[in-house]
Write a structure and sequence with these properties.
The chain is α+β, with helices and mostly antiparallel strands. It is built from six helices and twelve strands.
């Protein structure tokens, strides 16, 4: 009897040890799989935005001709400060509500329309917005603003009335907050229009000129920038002359994601995190992570979330910048 009880005790200990090993291995495997999935998702987001951003158009003053006609030379504004150019590349446009500035917001046009009956130049943009659930808790989503020049309505293709970049009376009307909200209304009724990715806390944009200098955080291609470019004259001397350019040579985009397991813990700290993304002294995801880590030292709740954060960034070279 004693031997039986000893055997059962030993067996119980072995089962508990094996169970503990199994649980640890299972947790490690799940953490690894989650990390791989999160990295793949982040890479897919960045690659998609890169593809669209690379073809950002210069601020031409005339709408593109029909596809069967020759494309005219690009005409840049003589006085960019008073430009009526229709096309535009803009980071953090003035008048944009703070709700769209969780980090930065970027908008442009590119020949990537998915319906091209009335042209191929689509309106594009990305920003992070915190949506309120029924409990009044914010949840972050990366929104994609995308407007085709045409639309399908009652079985017929027609010009899209929400496509406003060629509005001669108001070239900036396409960036009206009401129009942006209409195209990115993340609701069940709208079919979650504009929802690009969930659990993206912040999104940042840094623009650089051909001379390598960083441009203003609120950049507008209709105004452009004056860069100093070095060149060698015929007599061999080096000169550095200013020259107007209208698109950044490169754009660095970065974002911060939170794992779905960490997202459920945002209830009590989401406002604190959202407010941090809106700090003007934070210019990219790396700086956000550093500030978040510093704050987490004095906040157990933020410290708990830290392992679930991941930053991703890439540099995009614009084809039409030169």
């Amino acid at each position: 009897m004693v031997e039986l009880m000893v055997s059962i005790a030993v067996l119980s200990i072995l089962v508990l040890m094996l169970s503990d090993v199994f649980n640890r291995t299972s947790r490690a495997w799940m953490t690894g799989e989650t990390g791989i999935e999160r990295r793949r998702e982040a890479r897919a987001i960045i690659d998609f935005i890169t593809t669209e951003l690379r073809d950002a158009a210069l601020p031409v003053t005339e709408p593109p001709p029909p596809a069967d006609l020759a494309v005219p030379k690009i005409k840049l504004p003589d006085d960019p400060t008073k430009s009526q150019a229709q096309l535009q590349f803009v980071v953090n446009p003035p008048g944009l509500p703070i709700d769209y500035r969780n980090g930065d917001a970027i908008f442009w046009q590119a020949p990537i329309a998915t319906e091209q009956t009335f042209g191929d130049m689509a309106e594009v943009g990305y920003f992070v917005k915190w949506l309120m659930n029924t409990s009044g808790v914010g949840r972050p989503v990366l929104c994609r603003f995308f407007v085709n020049p045409s639309r399908l309505r009652e079985g017929k293709i027609e010009e899209n009335p929400d496509y406003l970049i060629y509005n001669k009376n108001d070239p900036s009307s396409w960036l009206n907050p009401a129009e942006i909200d209409k195209a990115t209304r993340v609701t069940k009724e709208s079919g979650y229009l504009g929802l690009f990715s969930e659990n993206v806390i912040g999104f940042w944009v840094r623009s650089y000129g051909l001379d390598g200098n960083e441009l203003d955080r609120s950049f507008d291609s209709r105004i452009g920038y004056s860069g100093k470019f070095r060149f060698r004259t015929q007599n061999g001397t080096i000169r550095e002359d200013p020259e107007m350019r209208y698109l950044p040579a490169s754009v660095v985009i970065s974002l911060v994601q939170i794992d779905s397991r960490g997202a459920v813990m945002l209830d009590t700290v989401w406002q604190e995190i959202r407010d941090l993304t809106r700090q003007p002294t934070i210019h990219d995801a790396k700086e956000f992570y550093e500030r978040f880590s510093a704050m987490a030292k004095n906040s157990p709740k933020l410290q708990t979330l830290l392992p679930y954060l991941r930053i991703t960034s890439t540099e995009v070279h614009l084809k039409n910048a030169r």
